[in-house]
Structure formats: C-alpha cells, structure tokens
RNA sequence: GGGCAUGUAGCUCAGUUGGUUAGAGCACCGCCUUGAUAAGGCGGGGGUCACUGGUUCGAGUCCAGUCCUGCCCA
C-alpha cells in the first residue's frame, strides 16, 4: 500500500458531499399509507377547513360517480383532477370544501341484484340494492382516499339517503307545481313473458325467424302520373299493421313508379319502389317492372304530406319523410306504427301522428286494434291471420321466412315487443329558452362545450322521467279510482316529508290505503308504481347538496366531469336548476376526455373481465404497484381536455419524471445538511421568501440567474393552476428541474458546495438559494405530489404538513432578467465548448471536462456582457480547469489536453497545485479550505 | 348519416397575431463520470406538421374539401 492512499482518503473526508436520509427510492407503495394514516389521525382535512374559515370561498361540486364497480382509471383521473383544483385553490388562499358524493339508484345495480336471485319482492330488491351500493361506496371511498384526495369522506352525499330522496321528490313537486309534468304514452321495450318494461341492458339478442312480407298501400289523391299507384312497404312484424298510421319515405332517395307484372299469376300492379331496391324487390316477390313503359321517376319528398289507404282498416296512413329510412333492406317505404317503435314514435310525434298501441300487458290484442276476431289473441299468434287478411284483400305481394337477430327478454327468454305505455314527461319547451340563456352565463372549458350542450338542449325532446323499475325514487303520484293521475304538488310534498324520516322503502312496504290516508286522498286511490329517472336524482344535487350544506352554495364555482356528461349530468343539473331557481347551477364547467387505449379505442368498465383484462384498468392496480403520487402525477401530466391515451407502458413514462423530480429533491436536501444555523428553521416570512432583497445584490451571477428562473417558473405555475392547466405546471417544473437545476445549476455549484470552506459566502449563498428553490418547488408541487411534497416538506425541517401552507408569492427582487440575459449568452458559448470537448472525448484525448484546456473564440461583435471579462466565473460556469478567451471572426472553441497537475481534492487541473507545503497535492483554494 | 371535437419525431405533447434551419420530455444510439451512483453530465440519429387543393412574397399556423379516431345522437 502506498503512502498516498491514506492522504487521498483524508481529503475525500474533507469534501462536503450531500447528506440526507431522504430516500432515493420512493417506496411509495409502503410509505404512502403511513402518511395517509397520519393525515387522517390528525384530521388534516378538517384542520385545513378550519384554517381557511373566513377566506373567500371556492366551491367545486362533486359529480357523483355510480356506486358500482371498482375505481376505473377514468374515474381516478376525474377525481384527481377535482382534487388538484381543490388543493390548488386552497393554497391560492381560498376556502375550498370538498363534499364527495355517490349516485346510488339505477338499473345497473338492480340488474346485478336481480340476476343473483330471481323473483324477489320489490322491498327485498331495494334492500339488496342498497347493500350493494353501500359496498361499492366503501370500496371507492378507500380508493379515492388512497389517491390522496382530500374531502369530507365521512359525510359524503348519497342519493339514497332519505333526506336526499325527499329533496328529489320536492324537486319533482316543483315541476308539478309549475305545470311542467304531463302523462302520455310512449313505446318501451316490453316483455310479455315477465309482464314488465325492460331496459336495454336487460335485453339479449337471439336469432328469430319472422315472416317478412311486402304489403301495398294504395295512394290517395296521388300527384299526376302516379294514378292508381301503390306504395309497397316491407315488414317483419305483420302484427303491428293494425297500428299503422303512416308511411315514411326518404326525402332524398330516388323512387320510381311503374307497372309490375307477376310472371306466374299474370297479375299486374302499379307500384312505387326506391330505385336502389328495385332489383331486390323483383327477386323477392316475382313482380317485374314492365320494360316497355318508362317508369315515372321522382324524389321521396314529392309524396310528403300525402296519404295512402290502409289495406284492411277504414283509415288512411299519412305519408311523411324521415332521414332514418335506409336502402339496405325493404322497399324505401317504411311502415310506421308510432305505438310500436322508437323511430316511429319520434317521427310520428314530429308529424302529428297518434300513438296507437292496441296490445295489453300479456301481449294480446285489445279492442282498439279494430279487428274483433283478433282481440285477446297473442300478437305473435296473429301474424298468420293478418297475412291471410292481406292476401284476401290482394295487398300481399310477397311472404318469406326471415332470420334475424331479435331482442329477447333476459329473464323469460321470450321475444320482446315494442309497446306504448303511459309515461310521465317534463315539458322542456316551457323552459327551453330560459335554459339556453342560462348556458351563455356559464364559462365552458374547453369553449366548445358551450356549443355541445347548447345543441343538445336545443334539440332535446321532452324528458321522459318515469321508469318501470324498482331501485329508485318512487314517483310521488297517485291515481284516482278511474285510473287518472292526480297531479297535485302538495300531495307529492306530503310524501316527501314522510320519506325524509322513514326512507322511500315505506312507499313499497305500506299499501295504498295507508298512503291514501297519509296524504288525504279518498279510499280507492292507488300509488304510482314507477320510479324516477336517475338523471333526476343526480340532477337534483344542486338542491339536495349545494342548497343544503351550509359550507356550499349555488351556483357552484366549478363542475368538472367527462365529456359524455354534456348530455348527462351537466344537462340534467341545468334543467333542474333552471326549472327550480331560474339559473344555471354552475359558473364554470370543465370537461375531461375519456381514458382510451393506445390505439385510440375507448376502454370501458364492461371490458373488465373479458380478454382485455390483460390490460389492467383499475386504479388500485396502479396505486398498489406504483403509488398514489404516480397516479396523481399521471393525471396532472395528461392533456385531460382531450381523450387520454393510456397503457401501463405509457403510465410508466410518468415514473421517469417522478424519479427525476425526486432525485433532484434529494440532492437539494442533501446539500442543505450543514445549512447555516437558523436557516433550516426559518419561519416563512411574510413575503414567503427566504432570500431577502438586501442579500440579493451580493448573490453571484449563477445564483441570481437561477432565482430569476425560479421567479418565472413560479409565475407560470400559478398561472397554470389558475387556468386549471396542470400539464403546464408539470412541464414547467419538469423542465426547470431537468434543464436548469440538474444539468446546470447543481452541476455548476457542486464545486463550491463540496470543496469551498463551510462558511465561504458564495457557498452559503448557494445554500440559501437552494432552500428558496426547494421550498418553492415543494409548495408548487404539493397539490400534485400530495405525498412526496409532504415528505419533502418534513425533510426541509418543518413539523407540520405542507398542505397547510399557501403558494409562495413572486419575489419582485428577481423579476428582472439581467442574469438570465447573461446566462443565455453563456449558454451559446457553452454549446460550442461542449461540442469541441465531445469531439476530444470521442477521440479518447480526454475524459472529464476538467482535463481540457479550452480556447474560446468570441466574435468581434456581440458577447459584450461583462461576465465575459470575468474569467473565474466563466471557468466555473463552463466547469473547466483552464480557459482562454480571444476574439475572432466567429464563435468557436478548440480543445487541448490540459497540462496542469490535478488537485487531489477538487479534481481540477490547476497551476497552483503543489505550491502549498502543507498540502502538496492540493490547489490553493482547497489547501485553504482544509486549513 | 348528423352535431361537437381531434390528427405535429417510435410514444405523449409545445408551437403565441402566418415570417430564419419546426421544439420539449420519454424511448433509442455513442461517450464521459463513479464525490446525486438502482443516480448524473455531454453529444447524436429521428418529422413530406393526416391527405388534397386554394389564398399569400411566405402556411404546421388562414380557407375549402377528403380521410382517421373519440364523445353524443340518429
């Protein structure tokens, strides 16, 4: 062992390397739950609220997620965005309470419950549905808390709470009072097997063979050239013909009218067919267009408003035009039975057709069908008889077997029918204009959201608010002995009061006599069996939550949900609020896009458990594997106003940013290990700045520069938060950390921090600067990295949570950009120097920068900043041992191997190494520092 | 089919009122460092700015049309 070795070791011990217990490895998965437990035990959310009491308020109203299933990444994104807003508003000086909520009623839950156990009594369905909802509320609440979302988690609002349900009924009563509710028939999916209305989700598609027939309708008073002509319709449901009230043509399609002859029978008829369907029609029926006479040609719009004779009933069918008419099947003329089809209903309503639905609960014809011999007979059994009538009347042109996918009841397995039943509606037209005006009082982010909702409100039909379901809020309506609905809001209010104390189960548990007596109606009155559309539930939250909670108010400052809510919650909330109080329930509405997979396809909850389950999409997978802060950083990094592409690989990219930020914090903290006494405990002064103006003048250029940069970062981040642009905050900080701190400031100041004497003023200035930077960044990141920022804050020597802090205010001392201007010139020179050094390095002439002698040539013009006459600062900035400056034609740098001896301590190659007897292997600065 | 969006490097995104050679992060390649070390630094490759046409001295940016993808409808 040589005598040199111990000396080397000694010098290494004199180097002030960073020292911190702040771990490089975040280990978020184990550490975060501990911090969360500490927050909860200390009542952090309540303390934040208490501290903020009296400040200006900011109310973000939580749109209630459905209490069904685990937290999907899309749900996590939305909830974290809400939390970013609430936390950043809190730190910006607002009192921002967050009351989370859940949407608890509705078909998906009822569907699951009923699927598990069939034939349950309504009260039992409701008990089980509530238990189901509560189970998932707990699961989701745990996830949201684990994600670091702050809020009043022990007192959320639930749409199944009796008080909430009572408010839903009161909202409905308000609609009644204003005369906005009416009852009318409308087609629904009906299972005659289960004798109930079904929802889309309860329908399964199976193969079914139906008769497909072509039927003639003779034109009445046709335009010239079409005398004696017949429209031909095609249908697979002959039983709906008794309810036929119209025929739809496409206004833009080409139709022909010509003479058709049946080869076998020799029968001849004048028929109207869409040109594009001619060939298929001829093949199917055997009726062939007479080639000797040119057919009439016209657009579908020609016949609009005309009429055709019903083939076997004494009435006419109105001819209307409709864009949903297709030319892929049929004849281009569509049989319309508004009581038996959704399209038919809508088009029929537009054109003033009646709703005829002569079918009872069991699927049998009623007297209304106009065919006495069919009354009481099941519709599917009547197809043949109706076809026989058509044949007898000569109206049947063809009859085939047709195999198609047809909806069936998931329970009784019977084919479903469309059948019109009485429903309750809200008359939108009565307050549509008011709603449209309210839309323009709202700030929509992004701005196109305004047009989106305006369009839907403008074109939406009346709101069908009744459902033939069990798991929901009952319509507080009664029928009199004649079956007429009693539309009296005072009665509904009485029901609401009863429900407020006893819950809506009472409606299902008690009988009609009890209820009639309670609300003061005569014996024989019956209560309505329907429930309210769940969009009334959540749409009433401005009444049931914002108006009720003393710490909230309406209109709320912000609603933020996925884009699908323009037609959903944003709209239902708007309509309810406008109807009830005449204004929008929100001042600003923000939308976030959907989480989609990397091929741009939507990832829905229903894909869970299928083949796609290979790609986990639930939030717990991510916070259990990577940590809650990682999910938060991801949410803050994405462009949430558009759809958000997602995959685990993509998610891991945010891990890189996280590591970068964390490692930088670690170095910064490590370099504060021997901070001047008092600094580490320095209470935040009123200006929120550690560096006082009077010190600023003495700061070295590089420190002044980084503080100027920090000043601009701070301003950009505050603006980013104010604009809800979290991505901007993240990218600003990431670029500052990576580009300015890591690559430049820390690299450059290492030499002072490690090798200068402990109390050297420029070393102390650097430490003060580092504290200023670290405190500022920690606060700026606190809304996003809720856990990590809190951890960092602790390591900065603070005893309480960073979440009780406010954002720093910009320190005007660093608003100027003199140092920044100087550094910009320095960086141009640096780029040239680095390229020259890199060439020498690749040529194996040198290794580290410190082994180079650099000759920098500056152009005659420019580079006039005084710093270019300050060789020590230039050497420090470029991290060089040996630099020579000359002026020449253009900016250039050349590199040679430096010949000075190497200082054992600071590793620079300097001429004064060896000039100190006490330390023959050190440079002057190091010899002095070691003493 | 309609309404509203969207389309810039392998991936995710910036690109201000049209104006030099279109930027960043991640990924990738090469080198250095081993005193931020399960880290850090330097250099580098990579884009017909979806497509077509137009306005203009000049278009990623403005106009028209087409296509892709998403949401909401039909």
Task: Describe it.
- With 931 residues, the protein is an alpha+beta fold.
- The chain is 40% helix and 17% strand.
- It is elongated.
- The structure holds one RNA strand of 74 nucleotides.
Distance between the termini: 26 Å
Structural class: alpha+beta
Mean pLDDT: 88
**Strand count, sense and closure of the main sheet?**
11 strands, mixed
Radius of gyration: 39 Å
**Total number of strands:** 30
Binned strand content: 15-25%
Choose one word for the global shape.
Answer: elongated
State the helix count. 29
- Runs in which pLDDT lies below 50 for 5 or more consecutive residues are 1-8, 603-614, 681-688
Helix content: 40-55%
Write the topology of this structure.
Layout: H1 4-14, H2 28-41, H3 44-52, H4 73-91, E1 101-102, H5 107-116, H6 122-146, E2 157-158, H7 162-177, E3 181-191, E4 196-198, E5 203-220, E6 230-235, E7 246-249, E8 254-262, E9 268-274, H8 278-285, E10 287-289, E11 296-299, E12 307-309, E13 316-321, E14 333-336, H9 342-350, H10 379-393, E15 396-409, E16 417-426, H11 432-439, E17 443-445, H12 448-459, E18 463-464, E19 466-467, E20 478-479, E21 485-486, H13 489-502, H14 505-509, H15 512-519, E22 526-527, E23 531-532, H16 534-539, H17 541-546, E24 556-562, H18 569-581, E25 586-592, E26 595-597, H19 619-625, H20 628-637, E27 644-646, H21 648-670, H22 693-696, H23 701-722, H24 726-755, H25 761-781, H26 786-795, H27 818-842, E28 852-859, H28 871-878, E29 882-888, E30 892-897, H29 924-930
Parallel strand pairs: 1-2, 6-9, 7-13, 17-25, 24-25, 26-27, 28-29
Antiparallel strand pairs: 3-4, 3-16, 5-6, 5-12, 5-15, 7-14, 8-9, 8-10, 8-11, 12-13, 16-18, 19-23, 20-21, 20-22, 28-30
Helix pairs in contact: 4-20, 5-6, 7-13, 11-12, 11-18, 19-20, 20-21, 21-24, 23-24, 23-25, 23-27, 24-25, 25-26
The protein binds one RNA strand of 74 nucleotides through helix 12, helix 21, helix 24 and helix 27.
């Amino acid at each position: 062992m040589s005598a040199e070795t111990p000396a080397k070791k000694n010098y290494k011990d004199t180097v002030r390397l960073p020292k911190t217990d702040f771990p490089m490895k975040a280990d978020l998965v184990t550490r975060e739950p501990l911090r969360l437990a500490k927050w909860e035990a200390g009542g952090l959310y309540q303390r934040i609220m208490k501290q903020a009491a009296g400040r200006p308020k900011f109310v973000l109203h939580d749109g209630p997620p459905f209490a069904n299933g685990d937290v999907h990444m899309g749900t996590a994104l939305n909830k974290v965005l809400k939390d970013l807003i609430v936390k950043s508003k809190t730190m910006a000086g607002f009192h921002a309470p967050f009351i989370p909520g859940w949407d608890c009623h509705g078909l998906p839950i009822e569907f699951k419950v009923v699927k598990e156990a069939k034939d349950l009594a309504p009260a039992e369905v409701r008990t089980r549905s509530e238990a189901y909802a509560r189970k998932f509320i707990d699961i989701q609440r745990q996830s949201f808390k684990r994600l670091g979302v702050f809020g009043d988690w022990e007192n959320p609002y639930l749409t199944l709470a009796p008080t909430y349900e009572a408010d839903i009924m009161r909202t409905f009563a308000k609609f009644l009072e204003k005369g906005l509710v009416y009852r009318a028939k409308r087609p629904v999916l009906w299972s005659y097997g289960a004798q109930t209305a079904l929802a889309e989700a309860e329908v399964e598609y199976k193969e079914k063979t139906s008769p497909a027939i072509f039927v003639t309708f003779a034109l009445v008073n046709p335009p010239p050239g079409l005398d004696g002509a017949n429209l031909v319709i095609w249908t697979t449901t002959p039983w709906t013909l008794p309810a036929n009230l119209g025929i739809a043509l496409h206004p833009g399609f080409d139709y022909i009218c010509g003479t058709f002859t049946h080869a076998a029978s020799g029968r001849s008829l004048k028929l109207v067919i869409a040109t594009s369907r001619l060939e298929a029609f001829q093949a199917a029926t055997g009726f062939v267009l007479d080639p000797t006479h040119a057919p009439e040609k016209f657009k579908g719009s020609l016949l609009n408003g005309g009429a055709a004779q019903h083939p076997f009933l004494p009435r006419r069918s109105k001819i209307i035009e409709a864009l949903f008419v297709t030319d892929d099947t049929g004849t281009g003329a569509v049989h319309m039975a508004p009581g038996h089809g959704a399209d038919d209903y809508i088009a029929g309503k537009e054109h003033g057709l009646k709703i005829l639905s002569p079918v009872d609960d069991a699927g049998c014809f009623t007297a209304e069908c106009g065919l006495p011999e069919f009354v009481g007979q099941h519709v599917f059994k009547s197809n043949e008889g109706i076809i026989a009538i058509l044949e007898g009347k000569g109206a049947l042109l063809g009859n085939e077997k047709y195999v198609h996918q047809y909806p069936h009841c998931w329970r009784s397995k019977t084919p479903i029918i469309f059948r019109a039943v009485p429903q309750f509606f809200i008359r939108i037209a009565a307050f549509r204009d008011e709603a449209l005006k309210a839309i323009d009082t709202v700030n929509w982010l992004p701005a196109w959201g305004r047009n989106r909702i305006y369009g839907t409100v403008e074109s939406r039909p009346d709101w069908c608010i009744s459902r033939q379901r069990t798991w929901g809020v009952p319509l507080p309506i009664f029928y009199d002995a004649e079956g007429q609905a009693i539309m009296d809001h005072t009665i509904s209010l009485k029901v609401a009061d009863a429900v407020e104390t006893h819950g809506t189960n009472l409606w299902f548990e008690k009988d009609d006599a009890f209820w009639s007596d309670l609300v003061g109606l005569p014996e024989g009155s019956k209560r309505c069996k329907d429930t309210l559309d769940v969009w009334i539930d959540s749409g009433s939250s401005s009444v049931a939550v914002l108006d009720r909670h003393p710490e909230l108010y309406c209109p709320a400052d912000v609603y933020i949900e996925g884009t699908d809510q323009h037609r959903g919650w944003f709209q239902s909330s708007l309509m309810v609020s406008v109807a009830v109080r005449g204004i929008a329930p929100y001042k600003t509405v923000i939308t976030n896009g959907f989480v989609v997979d990397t091929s741009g396809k939507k990832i829905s909850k229903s894909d869970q458990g299928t083949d796609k389950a290979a790609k986990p999409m639930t939030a717990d997978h991510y916070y259990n594997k990577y940590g809650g802060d990682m999910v938060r950083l991801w949410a803050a990094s994405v462009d949430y106003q558009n759809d958000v592409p997602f995959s685990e690989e993509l998610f891991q990219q945010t891990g890189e940013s996280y590591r970068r930020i964390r490692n930088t914090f670690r170095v910064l903290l490590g370099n504060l290990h021997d901070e001047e006494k008092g600094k580490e405990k320095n209470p935040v002064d009123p200006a929120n700045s550690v560096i006082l103006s009077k010190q600023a003048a003495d700061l070295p250029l590089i420190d002044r520069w980084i503080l100027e940069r920090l000043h601009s970062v701070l301003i950009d981040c505050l603006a980013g938060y104010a604009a809800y642009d979290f991505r901007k905050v993240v990218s600003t900080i990431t670029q500052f950390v990576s580009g300015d701190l890591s690559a430049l400031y820390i690299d450059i100041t290492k030499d002072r921090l490690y090798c200068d004497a402990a109390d050297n003023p420029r070393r102390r200035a650097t430490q003060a600067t580092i504290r200023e930077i670290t405190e500022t960044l920690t606060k700026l990141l606190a809304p996003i990295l809720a856990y990590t920022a809190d951890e960092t804050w602790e390591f900065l020597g603070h005893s309480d949570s960073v979440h009780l802090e406010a954002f720093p205010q910009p320190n005007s001392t660093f608003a100027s950009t003199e140092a920044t201007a100087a550094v910009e010139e320095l960086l141009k020179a640096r780029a040239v120097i680095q390229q020259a050094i890199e060439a020498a390095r690749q040529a194996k002439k040198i290794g580290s920068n410190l082994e180079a002698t650099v000759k920098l040539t500056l152009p005659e013009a420019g580079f006039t900043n005084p710093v270019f006459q300050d060789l020590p600062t230039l050497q420090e900035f470029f991290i060089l041992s040996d630099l020579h400056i000359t002026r020449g034609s253009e900016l250039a740098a050349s590199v040679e191997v430096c010949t000075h001896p190497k200082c054992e301590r600071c590793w620079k190659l300097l001429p004064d190494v060896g000039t100190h007897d006490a330390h023959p292997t050190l440079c002057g600065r190091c010899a002095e520092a070691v003493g």
